Amino acid sequence: QPNYKHLVVGTDVSIPIINGKYTKEINFDNAATTPPLTSVMNAINDFAPWYSSIHRGTGYKSHLSSEIYDATRKTVSHFVNMDNDYSTIIFVKNTTDAINKVSTKLSQTISNGVILSSFMEHHSNDLPWRKNFQIDYINVNDKGNLSIKDCEQKLKKYNGRIRLVTISGASNVTGYKTDIHDFAKLAHKYGAKILIDGAQLIPHSPIDMKPDYSSEHIDYLAFSGHKIYAPFGTGVLIGPKNVFKHGNPTQSGGGTVKIVTPNYVMWDDIPYKEEAGTPNIMGIVALNAALKTLNEIGMDNIEKMEINLTEYTLSRLNRIKDVVIYGNGKDCSNRIGIITFNIKGLHHSIVANILSKETGISVRSGCFCAQPYIQKLLHLKKTDIDIHKNNPNSPHPGMVRVSFGLYNDYSEVDTFIDILNKIVNNKSYYIRKYSSKDFEI
Ligand code: PMP
């Protein structure tokens, strides 16, 4: 099994845990954000003396910065195998920003259209559509897998009104990996476009957007730099040139125009027209370095390594009594390295807190910004949801999530399994300890 720990910053820092002790952090919260690669930090440091505001300055540094900024589009294009004739790359803040941009842009031209999202989505691929469109959702089965049959039924039912199918490439809750090309084919068959929320897919699995003429082509792709080993603040939106070329940009201001008079505006060419204001040049330098390093390692290798680790974890987790695993159980065939579970009789936030305080394991617990999906996976009834609605500060239903990055290893999983065994075998002790003043849900 390859070990990529040395490629990542901060994997050897010690953090405080219970009883005044310190331990090395075990970060199993990579679905929230990934730590930066060493190559990324080096690229930032190397570029720091040379950076300047892009596209407007005439100075040497400004030219250099502009060059790197635009060259990063080539790196992105190569990384996702984009069709350069059909698509444009717009740099944004993050996935949320990207999806909001598409929603606003499409609302300029689509009237009486329906957006087909799914019950598996992160709120960022649901709420931005609600404000501008009628929306419907593809159903999920008991395991939380997207139903392609239901997708087709909905496409038929709306009789051509569905203009976009917008789904995650991989779920941030169950790790379920969508057959994006099958969904693309189906959407196109019914005259709709497809958007893939790639926030979780892109850092953990190879992706191929395929050429425009292919029926399996991905029309829109969104992802975040901070989930792909670069720092916060940069994201990528890829979409059809002909959509963004026409009409007004979603945001206007500096950098978006060619000519302005008091009563006339000529917008700049794409993608500049859609990148209002001074861009995050250092963030883009970082993103460039991250994608190049991942490409050198090979996304196939990363995926294989993370899935092996996931398989190992699941096989051990399955043997612990009272552990309930959500999603596809032990099956790793359509999956990225995410596992969500609960321990019967313990609130998820207590489990997460014990992991952190006893052994320095960072996980995420709760609803992971995907409340409708959690409601389905937990089979919550309307009355359960109403109770929570009436008392939003009451303990949330939810789960514990473990999400791997390329630098996690087997010994970390062993530590995790050991503490879980201890928790399960000493439930009442831990409930007492972590429900006391030490800890509030
Ligand atoms: N979609 C998915 C599937 C995600 O996991 C996330 C982040 N958890 C987002 C969208 C939103 O990403 P960001 O916060 O970087 O905009």
Automatic annotation (TrEMBL):
InterPro entries: Aminotrans_V_dom (IPR000192), Aminotrans_V_PyrdxlP_BS (IPR020578), PyrdxlP-dep_Trfase (IPR015424), PyrdxlP-dep_Trfase_major (IPR015421), PyrdxlP-dep_Trfase_small (IPR015422)
Domain Aminotransferase class V: from-to ranges: 26-416
Entries under Pfam families matching the protein: Aminotran_5 (PF00266)
Cofactor(s) for this UniProt protein: pyridoxal 5'-phosphate
Catalytic activity: (sulfur carrier)-H + L-cysteine = (sulfur carrier)-SH + L-alanine
Taxonomy, superkingdom: Bacteria
Gene Ontology molecular function terms on file: cysteine desulfurase activity; transaminase activity
SUPFAM superfamilies: PLP-dependent transferases
Gene3D superfamilies the record matches: Aspartate Aminotransferase, domain 1, Type I PLP-dependent aspartate aminotransferase-like (Major domain)
Keywords, in A-Z order: Aminotransferase, Pyridoxal phosphate, Transferase
PANTHER family per record: CYSTEINE DESULFURASE, CYSTEINE DESULFURASE 1, CHLOROPLASTIC
Assigned protein family: Belongs to the class-V pyridoxal-phosphate-dependent aminotransferase family. Csd subfamily.
Protein name from the UniProt record: Class V aminotransferase
Species the sequence originates in: Vallitalea longa
Lineage: Bacteria, Bacillati, Bacillota, Clostridia, Lachnospirales
